[in-house]
Design a protein that fits this description.
Blueprint: H1 3-15, H2 20-35, E1 37-46, E2 51-57, E3 64-66, H3 70-78, E4 82-84, H4 95-101, E5 108-114, E6 120-129, H5 136-160
Antiparallel strand pairs: 1-2, 1-6, 2-3, 4-5, 5-6
Length: about 160
């Protein structure tokens, strides 16, 4: 099955879910599966407080960073996806999160999620692709996926406010 058919099947499962927690969990699991990543976090943009915070984060509690902090913050500010296959060599990387969690980040893929007004409402962050580095095919797949799930996420966020 190709990745686009896989995403279409995911869409059918997504439409049957009834809680935001279940939707977010399914989105995270599917994103990881699409690119063989170990972890997925979904950062939400809070423009009022100028922060990004995780609505979903594998293996950790809530993460809160400034909207201009780290690779995720750079993704938000530039409104473009990032592949960082040597994060500890990247000055934007926030190693204190790894230290706090005991996790070791080997590679990172971040993709902005745009709302219907083409503003960034969130960022998908994937960590540690198994057996290789993230590549442009992964970036294209997760960009397509982010566009695919953006309407569902926007609706969830509106209903939660």
């Amino acid at each position: 099955m190709n990745k686009f058919n896989q995403i279409a099947d995911f869409g059918k499962a997504l439409s049957r879910l009834d809680t935001s927690e279940n939707v977010l969990t399914l989105i995270g699991e599917e994103a990881k599966r699409l690119v063989n990543a170990d972890r997925c976090s979904l950062f939400i943009v809070d423009k009022e407080d100028d922060i990004l915070w995780t609505k979903l984060s594998d293996g950790m509690g809530r993460i809160v960073i400034g909207s201009d902090s780290g690779i995720v913050g750079d993704t938000y500010l530039k409104k473009e996806a990032q592949i960082v296959n040597t994060p500890y060599d990247d000055k934007r990387f926030l190693p204190n999160i790894d230290k706090k969690s005991g996790y070791s980040t080997k590679n990172v893929l971040t993709v902005p999620i745009f709302d219907s007004k083409h503003e960034v409402m969130g960022i998908i962050q994937l960590l540690n692709k198994s057996r290789s580095d993230f590549n442009t095919e992964d970036l294209e797949t997760i960009t397509f996926f982010a566009n695919y799930v953006s309407g569902s996420l926007e609706l969830i966020f509106m209903l939660e406010q």
